Amino acid sequence: VGINRADPRFWQxxxxxxxxxxxxxxxxxxxxxxxxxxxPARIRQ
Length: 45
Description:
There is one protein chain. The protein has one domain. 33% of the residues lie in helices and 0% in strands. The mean pLDDT is 79. It is mostly helical and 45 residues long. The chain starts with 9 loop residues before the first helix and ends in a 21-residue tail after the last helix. The longest helix is centred in the middle third of the chain and has 15 residues, at 10-24. The chain has one helix spanning 10-24. GO terms for molecular function: isomerase activity. It comes from Candidatus Electrothrix marina. Keywords: Isomerase.
């Protein structure tokens, strides 16, 4: 189960993962590259 990046909750989820990564791996942590997601997210209608 995942979250579509077109979902309004996406950034809240992204921030949670990013903060957790920095807490658990402070030396190795970096930013997740969101440009690697393909194909572009679309909202289903």
